Amino acid sequence: NAGVMQNPRHLVRRRGQEARLRCSPMKGHSHVYWYRQLPEEGLKFMVYLQKENIIDESGMPKERFSAEFPKEGPSILRIQQVVRGDSAAYFCASSPLGQANTEAFFGQGTRLTVV
Amino acid sequence: GQQLNQSPQSMFIQEGEDVSMNCTSSSIFNTWLWYKQDPGEGPVLLIALYKAGELTSNGRLTAQFGITRKDSFLNISASIPSDVGIYFCAGQPLNTGTASKLTFGTGTRLQVTL
Description:
The complex is a heterodimer. By secondary structure, chain A is an all-beta fold. Helix content of chain A is 0%, strand content 49%. In chain B, a hairpin with a 2-residue loop joins strand 6 and strand 7. The mean pLDDT of chain B is 90. The chains are: A mainly beta, B mainly beta.
């Protein structure tokens, strides 16, 4: 029973390039959440998606960042024109329901380094 | 925005000692969660608390959801070397309607010496 799968585990991009981070939720989970973790800090909520819908993107930067969770395939977090400040670990979590008292499970993260 | 103050920031303890860490918030949370994160890995859920005053154990771990809904503590008894890692508290705010729009604390880094 595979957990939340994220790839790549490590991603290096030059300033100005695009970064695409992928997340496959646990089997049977239809709710996906993306978090960002800067070094020595806790995780910060970015966006909450269900299949084909963005439910809450209150934590997403207004520019350059976008997320999708298509009907088929993994959820994608896309960062355009990356800058050094985008370097961080990006974690995806999934849950079967988007309600209170529902536990979510995290993937191993993608560590993005912008050079 | 909401903030979680987690303390202590780091701890050095000897194997076999008990550990206590806590989290306080400026606002009320509906759910408190405690996670452990190993280097290069994602957070792993240790304990989930859903009711004010709730005391829950998971092996050597015990956590409590404060009565005021603004704080929680985690205790680890008889620590062992594999307890090393960063422990995060996380709270789900009231009325968010989502399972995991969580606010995370800044973490407690635990190091265990033999």
